[in-house]
Design brief:
The structure is a homodimer. With about 140 residues, chain A is α+β, with helices and mostly antiparallel strands. The mean pLDDT of chain A is about 90. The first copy, chain A, has a three-stranded antiparallel beta sheet with strand order 1-3-2. A three-stranded mixed beta sheet of chain A has the order 5-4-7, with no helix packed on it. The first copy, chain A, has one domain: Winged helix-like DNA-binding domain superfamily/Winged helix DNA-binding domain (Arc Repressor Mutant, subunit A, Orthogonal Bundle). At the A-B interface, strand 6 and strand 7 of A face strand 6 and strand 7 of B. The structure holds a DNA duplex (30 and 30 nucleotides).
Chain lengths: ~140, ~140
DNA sequence: TTTATAAATGCAACAATGTTGCAAAAATAT
DNA sequence: ATATTTTTGCAACATTGTTGCATTTATAAA
């Protein structure tokens, strides 16, 4: 994990700082699970909220993480597994949000739609959210 | 509009208060456009944020309005045009969110997906968000 | 119409999330 | 080893949302 984190920072030409290393390791550990700022905060030893927010923005700008829109109101991020870039986040996969524990995970699958967008509207991104109860909470 | 608002309050057995009347009129006027708490606040003459939040919750509970999930982080509501109830919000229509002006509107259309949800996960609701630029902002 | 009662309001107080400016510290380049 | 560029950490602030409680208001009952 540590090595992978360092690799990524190097790859994206980002300075190797304690915060970035730790946050990146947490995302690598989380896999397909999305993490909120407060999730990360409680997992970090030394926490400065502001630096954390900036770290997340930096990672997002570089296409390392993407926002996992789940309708919960809190911003969550997950590792980009596909090919994301600064200008194009290819996170067109669906997200599942558990209403009970608040957990959000990235899923796979394709979405088809026949939505008619009004004249003059330009669609740039699509988000598909499945909401319900996860396996941990459904028992 | 005024009459329609009063009708609705009567229909749902909700007390006829100034706040409720005004908020309902704003939603009726907005049609398929979703409104945030702050949108409403600036449109109201006399504003108490807390009462407004409670009014929105009440309307939502009664199936008069539904949350329009748009990934913007702010909670927005739009009139239920279909048949929503306290326990079942049938707002399975997509929402369009304009990244430039922040506007959100309800659209129509069906969504098909082949998403494989992990074992034990129960899907209760689905949300489909189209994000981009609206006609007002695309000029 | 007046009174009783049930519900809604408005206030204080608080919590969570997020942003900006700026000086100090740290990471890289020279 | 030093210079330069970034990043950090702090204060200060803004927005969004919630809860408890006394007061006021809307409706139901007498």
């Amino acid at each position: 994990m540590q090595e992978k984190a360092l690799e990524l920072l190097k790859l994206y030409r980002l300075r190797n700082t304690a915060m970035r290393r730790q946050v990146l390791e947490l995302f690598l550990k989380a896999g397909h699970k999305a993490l909120s700022s407060s999730n990360l905060e409680s997992a970090l030893e030394k926490t400065d909220r502001i630096t954390l927010y900036r770290t997340l923005k930096t990672f997002e700008r570089n296409g390392i993480i993407h926002q996992a829109i789940d309708g919960s109101g809190v911003t969550k991020y997950a590792l980009c597994h596909g090919q994301c870039s600064e200008h194009d986040h290819m996170d067109d996969h669906p997200h599942f949000h558990c209403k009970d524990c608040g957990k959000t995970i990235c899923l796979e699958g394709k979405i088809q739609n026949n939505v008619k967008v009004p004249k003059g509207f330009i669609v740039q991104q699509k988000h598909f959210i499945l909401e319900g109860t996860c396996s941990d909470c459904s028992n």
